[in-house]
């Protein structure tokens, strides 16, 4: 009788091996190589993963330009790596800072109006419930409404455009961070045999990175919602 695999008394033992990956030599697909620019981020914390939605807030509507899904352990590693990169940046270029808003210089007509405004002598403050230069007292219907509370997640995403191709996102189990004097670049990598590959590449201006780090730390400190 000929020998067939199904006639073997014992199945062969499973083969096991160890594979080492290098993030620096990860393959960069052509459609990913140029990367996307983002100037904002939204974070969604799940039970097992963290979703990073990178936003482009220039022009209307604002849109999601990249969605990356990280295991929580990798998200914690990303926080540590980003802290080290920011420290290295500060040692070389100084602390990142957002540009400060400069109020416009008042025109001649505005300056003339300010000169004609009523003056209040020391100790002669206006009575409670009145506005300087206006005799009408503040009634409840004239009191400004309190500022609205933070928008819900449905309201936030209702104002964003998300292409269908980004709904499922891109998975990554490693992150490589680089920086120049003006930008930070994030390579999200899948370390899977036979070759590591970059699944998403995102560029951000330096002033936006400290806020991103703060959001990451805050999101990872909040217990995830149980399903």
Question: What does this protein look like?
Answer:
- It is a single chain.
- The chain has 227 residues and is of the alpha/beta class.
- It has a domain at 21-95 and 157-227.
- Helix content is 23%, strand content 24%.
- It has 5 helices and 9 strands.
- The chain has helices at 30-33, 72-93, 108-115, 153-158, 209-221, and strands at residues 36-38, 40-45, 49-56, 62-71, 160-161, 170-171, 174-179, 183-190, 197-205.
- The strands form 2 sheets. Strands 2, 3, 4, 5 and 6 form a 5-stranded mixed sheet that branches.
- Helix 2 (72-93) runs antiparallel to helix 5.
Q: Summarize model confidence as the mean pLDDT.
A: 83
Q: What is the structural class?
A: alpha/beta
Radius of gyration, Cα only, in angstroms? 28 Å
Specify the number of helices: 5
Topology, pairings included?
Layout: H1 30-33, E1 36-38, E2 40-45, E3 49-56, E4 62-71, H2 72-93, H3 108-115, H4 153-158, E5 160-161, E6 170-171, E7 174-179, E8 183-190, E9 197-205, H5 209-221
Parallel strand pairs: 1-9, 4-5, 4-6
Antiparallel strand pairs: 2-3, 3-4, 7-8, 8-9
Would you kindly provide a brief summary of this structure?
The protein has 227 residues and is of the alpha/beta class. It has helices at residues 30-33, 72-93, 108-115, 153-158, 209-221, and strands at 36-38, 40-45, 49-56, 62-71, 160-161, 170-171, 174-179, 183-190, 197-205.
What structural keywords apply?
227 residues; alpha/beta; 5-stranded mixed sheet; 9 strands
């Amino acid at each position: 009788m000929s020998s067939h695999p199904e006639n073997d008394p014992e199945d062969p033992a499973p083969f096991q091996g160890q594979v080492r990956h290098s993030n620096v030599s990860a393959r960069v697909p052509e459609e990913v190589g140029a990367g996307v620019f983002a100037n904002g981020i939204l974070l969604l914390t799940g039970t097992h993963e963290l979703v990073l939605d990178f936003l482009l807030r220039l022009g209307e509507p604002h849109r999601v330009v990249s969605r990356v899904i990280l295991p929580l352990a990798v998200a914690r590693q990303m926080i540590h790596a980003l802290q080290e990169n920011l420290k290295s940046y500060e040692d070389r270029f100084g602390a990142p800072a957002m540009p400060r808003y400069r109020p416009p210089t008042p025109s001649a007509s505005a300056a003339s109006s300010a000169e004609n405004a009523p003056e209040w002598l020391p100790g002669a403050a206006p009575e409670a419930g009145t506005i300087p230069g206006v005799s009408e007292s503040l009634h409840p219907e004239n009191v400004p409404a309190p500022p609205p509370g933070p928008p819900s997640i449905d309201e936030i995403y209702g104002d964003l455009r998300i292409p269908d191709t980004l709904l499922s996102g891109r998975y990554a189990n490693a992150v490589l961070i680089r920086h120049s004097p003006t930008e930070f670049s994030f390579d999200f990598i899948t370390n899977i045999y036979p070759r590591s590959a970059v699944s998403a590449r995102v560029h951000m201006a330096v002033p936006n990175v400290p806020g991103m780090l703060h959001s990451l730390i805050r999101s990872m400190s909040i217990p995830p919602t149980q399903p």
